[in-house]
Each structure stands twice: as structure tokens, then as C-alpha cells.
Amino acid sequence: MTDRGRTRETGRPREREDAGTGERLRRRLPSLPWLARAAGTALSVVAVGFVLAFLFVVGRGGRLTLLTRPPAMRAVLALPSLVAFLAPSAALGAALAWRNGYWSRRARVHQTVLALLGLGLCWQLWVLGFLPP
Question: Which of 34, 78, 86, 115 is 20 to 30 A from 15 via CA?
Fold first, then answer.
């Protein structure tokens, strides 16, 4: 004898499985505070990774590395575009954190400083010619 309110495969209530598209999407995507923190963390990792990888590739290849552009340098030069995407994302996350009161004040200040530093890095990358005009 089976329970009519539950499915046979999972044992979950049918109402939960028959939820609308909005409910399914909400369950699969992380929360906004998580996405805001992830953007800030990814920005930090990619920015530091770009600087270290750039120094490593130029250090190993010499001055001609900037002119000949070996595959390693091409991979490194793809990272500023990712920084340019993540910096405004982190800034948007910081703005949402202040508006909706995510986290503690200390964490919001940290996220804001991180976003501002990321935007400053983007400006500097643009001035140095690593980002297209």
C-alpha cells in the first residue's frame, strides 16, 4: 500500500516536486548574500592570481614575452577581463549588503573596501592597457 501524498521514488511530498519554476529556481540558486560574498572572494583570488601569474610569466620569459605573447602570456592576459566582470559584481553585492542588512557592519565595510579596491584595480588595468577601451 502506497501513500498517495508521496511519490514512490523519493518519498517526498508531491507538492514539493510539483512546485512552480520560480520555486525550483530559488532552491537551486544560492542566496544573494552568498553570491555577494562569492563575487568578492573570486575578485580577490583572480586579482592576486593575475599579478602573480603575470610576474611569473614575465620573469621566466624576459622582456620579449610582452611582444611575442606565448600561450602562457595569452592565458594570463585573459584574467583582466574576468577582473573587470567581478569588480562591479562585488560592488553590486556590497550595495545590496548595505541595503538589505546582510552580515555584520564589519563584514559590510570589508566587502565595500574590497569592491572599491577591485574597481580601482580595473581602472589601473585600463590605464595600463590590459583592458580594451
Answer: 34
